[in-house]
Design a protein that fits this description.
This protein is of the alpha/beta class. α5 packs parallel to α6. 20% of the residues lie in helices and 27% in strands. β7 and β8 form a beta hairpin. It has a single domain, classed as Glutaconate Coenzyme A-transferase (3-Layer(aba) Sandwich), CATH 3.40.1080. The chain is built from 6 helices and 12 strands. Strands 1, 2, 3, 4, 5, 9, 10, 11 and 12 form a 9-stranded mixed beta sheet that branches. Strands 6-8-7 form a 3-stranded antiparallel beta sheet. This is Succinyl-CoA:3-ketoacid-CoA transferase. One of its GO terms (molecular function) is CoA-transferase activity. Keywords: Transferase. InterPro entries: 3-oxoacid_CoA-transf_A, CoA_trans_fam_I, NagB/RpiA_transferase-like. It comes from Novosphingobium lindaniclasticum LE124.
Amino acid sequence: MSKIYDSPAEALDGLLFDGMTIMSGGFGLSGNPESLIPEIRKSGVTGLTVVSNNAGADGFGLWMLLESRQVRKMISSYVGENKLFEQQYLSGELELELNPQGTLAERIRAGGAGIPAFYTRTGVGTVVAEGKPVEVFEGEEYVRETWLRSDLSIIKAWRADPAGNLMFRKTARNFNPNMATAGRVTVVEVEEIVPEGTFDPDCIHTPGIYVDRVVLCTVNEKRIEKRTVREKEIA
């Protein structure tokens, strides 16, 4: 049975509800589900907990859901260049659970693997470890972190086949494969849909068993967050 849907709105139909947890792929502006996020905004759902490395950038990506005040809590690694994210957090309007980047990635991976908790040295002795169990292994302290799972994972891939097998392209791979495994339902937007049997099985990054719905991108801007150039040298 094909997992292909005709539009981002159809791909999200029946999945959204107030107070849900959503995982959203991307790192900076690379690998963001640009077509699905606007449909979540249009739906009007509120009280969202969103798990994502960052929250887009000014005017783009998850920024859209912050601007519409649909997000109650962010579980993230980087506030960075998003001024709206910063303002809402500092004003107390937005709850933030800040994670070291590697810890965030591992918490998501653990959620997909069915591992409820794990220990890491990252964050020991800092605010990251406050209120969390700490144990000693081989003479070193480790802080216990818990898994992350979601009601819905929205991710972006390069190519998919009708069975939902995925390939990602370069850095757009980032958090997306792990999030695909950690969602109760996973919806994927892709740049290209290929016929069944196109993929070499050894080249599939995410097997279709983790993917519920696939839709072609309607937005594919691939913005550059910061452009740095050097002056042309005089010959």
